[in-house]
UniProtKB/TrEMBL annotation, chains A, B:
Protein name stated in the entry: Probable acyltransferase
SUPFAM superfamilies per the UniProt record, alphabetical: alpha/beta-Hydrolases
Signal peptide: 1-20
Transmembrane stretches, start-end: none
Subcellular location per the Swiss-Prot or TrEMBL entry: Cytoplasm
Gene3D superfamilies named among the record's database cross-references: 1.10.1740.110, alpha/beta hydrolase
């Protein structure tokens, strides 16, 4: 007993310094006087948050760019404060981890039209921010952006850091689209591409579902055609939209395995009243409303549009951008994914591979569907580490 | 050439009488002074439409009951008028067809809270119809119904026809739930059960999606807590709800194969404006709004609730009702089904089979997902014919 206690104490003592020595992450802001979109519109006063882990080497060639998913932001790893939340891929990014910050300088940036526009740690430019020309929020007058525009904001940040070529670019879901786009748009500036749970274009099915995702926002009378700043935001519609995303990004193994037919409240039989819910309904309601408060409804619609518009390269043909990718590609996905199904991801891999580009495909196991690309990424840790070495 | 023309003419002449001799279907109305729901509420003045194909024999033992799906009604076969639309399963119901009306008397009935409450050929009782106690539409004061309540209305109709035992009961989707429920609730009154594209209970995933389906209605300010009769109905919300159902009941093979990334209007690039849609979006919008005009939003919510509440038998345990089924079961489904996935259907089949009840499973091929249970049912024609013979 004494031994066990001593061992536990020693482990605790060892653990504390390990945490204490980990440097805190500093969120920074990248500013550009002007940004011209691919569609030809100009955005004055672009401001986007970013953060980095590790140290930029003298040759500036040890950079790995992490691009974030639809509802995500730059916070991929580490913590802003001692008791703050760890970034979403903290399991693979850090000292000694597969994306080893002892070796790599890992950069991650908030996209424009970031969903979490009202989160204190997010800095973004979009409908919710002020149009310098009017002094009012842009609303739906903000230009439509594409995934390529997101890539351009990252390129500008990297240019400002003097980084010519990325060791790798990696992202999940919408982040995977940005990773493909980097490989297609800048084949000479990307050493490796790691798209996770994403395919090379938005197909008809994804376009349709993205329309469904956004519909509740447009139905909420508070949305008011996007003009709600200064009034009541369309929280109910946004919460419903986020509910759909939440369910779509999960799997039946989750909804059935964790919740099944359980009631939200014992004694409140769903058969007795429309107010009595099943637990899965209450959980989705809570998740939707919880995230709605820090999200922006117009930003949601702009992100949905950017995803619908995506095909790698945005060129003259659907496949040209994928064929333009020259860097080796490590595709990570799961067959339980409802958003980017396995066959779409495998088809993407085949097209990239068809002209001789090396492509490795790693399949994740799990019960969380699309989300396993975030929650279960550590499974691919060894493959990522090896891919980054080569 | 003359021969070919003669042959074509002969074929045309042969075709015309075949159509002309087919008896037209007469829609009838079943009325009951009172109906007590499983929840203990009383509905005065129940009125439900029904129709039949074939002739009831003297022994009254040649009856096959067809139970309809979520957005369906009693019109399973034949035509009401010479140029009217054929019923949804006309390919398998009729003279000489797998469900042979030369031999069987095929009965089909509108459910209460039928979605198509405002279709001229549908007669139903629900929130949109008048509560005799108040002289006003019931609205959300209408009692919550279950799939078992639907079965009870059918039992009352069959009782009125002097039918003691069904040769078979068959239905697709929500109709499959009714078929399971018939087998569970009245094992002595059902000779055969044919559930198509449906499983033995609503699992957590289906419960969640049914919540998502109904959300747009609740968001539409015209819904007004269900009190919209006499005012503007919540058409926009109902149309969005029907869009989700439409997409969910299809498959990616449809949305990608038929539409892909095509634009709704040539020259109206979706990248240029939020008003410019992809074709799949415009098709879903059209389908949703087209059906919304003849549907009722409250009825939609009552149907969603009935589906959420379903587990065969509605008894003390999830499996008891399925184990109560004694009649042979022919399960027809497709693995491309997003609403009732293949594993849920196969699990249902295994549970029914576990106590010795004969179960046959037939899998449909197709590119339309859940809808193949309606559109592709003819594939199972031989299996259905043989099953009905035994």
């Amino acid at each position: 007993m004494i031994r066990a206690t001593t061992a536990a104490l020693a482990a605790a003592l060892l653990a504390v310094p390990a945490l204490a020595y980990e440097p805190l992450v500093e969120k920074q802001v990248f500013e550009a006087e002007s940004f011209t979109t691919q569609g030809g519109s100009e955005i004055a006063g672009l401001r986007l948050g970013w953060e980095a882990y590790g140290t930029l080497n003298e040759a500036r060639d040890n950079v790995i760019l992490i691009t974030h998913y639809f509802s995500g932001n730059s916070h991929a790893a580490g913590r802003y404060t001692e008791d703050g939340a760890r970034g979403y891929w903290d399991s693979i990014i850090g000292s000694g981890k597969p994306i080893d910050t002892d070796r790599f300088y890992v950069v991650s940036m908030d996209t424009p039209v970031n969903l979490g526009a009202h989160l204190p740690d997010v800095t973004t430019t979009g409908p919710a921010t002020t149009n310098p020309a009017t002094g009012e929020p842009w609303g739906m007058d903000f230009p439509i952006l594409t995934i390529r525009d997101f890539v351009e904001t990252q390129r500008m940040l990297l240019d400002s850091l003097g980084v010519e070529k990325l060791h790798a670019v990696m992202g999940a879901s919408m982040g995977a689209l940005q990773a493909y786009e980097w490989g297609a748009a800048y084949p000479g500036r990307v050493g490796r591409v790691i798209p996770v749970i994403g395919s090379g274009w938005a197909d008809g099915d994804l376009i349709a579902w993205l329309n469904i995702w956004g519909a509740p926002i447009r139905l909420d009378p508070n949305w008011n055609g996007g003009d709600y700043y200064g009034g009541e935001p369309p929280l109910a519609g946004l919460a419903e939209a986020l509910k759909i995303v939440t369910l779509h990004a999960q799997s039946a193994e989750w909804s059935n395995g964790v919740f099944g037919r359980a009631w939200a409240d014992d004694g409140a039989d769903p058969a007795a009243s429309f107010d009595n819910l099943y637990r899965i309904e209450a959980v989705l309601d809570g998740a939707g409303m919880g995230r709605a408060k820090t999200s922006d409804a117009n930003h949601f619609l702009y992100l949905a549009k950017a995803n619908q518009l995506f095909y790698a390269g945005h060129g003259d043909s659907l496949y040209a951008g994928l064929l333009a990718i020259d860097a080796p590609v490590l595709v990570i996905h799961t067959d339980e994914d409802l958003v980017f199904p396995g066959n779409a991801v495998r088809e993407t891999a085949s097209i990239i591979r068809s002209d001789g580009t090396p492509v490795t495909v790693v399949e994740l196991e799990g019960t969380r569907g699309h989300l396993d690309g975030v929650l279960g990424i550590a499974q691919a840790g060894a493959a990522i580490r090896a891919f980054l070495e080569n």
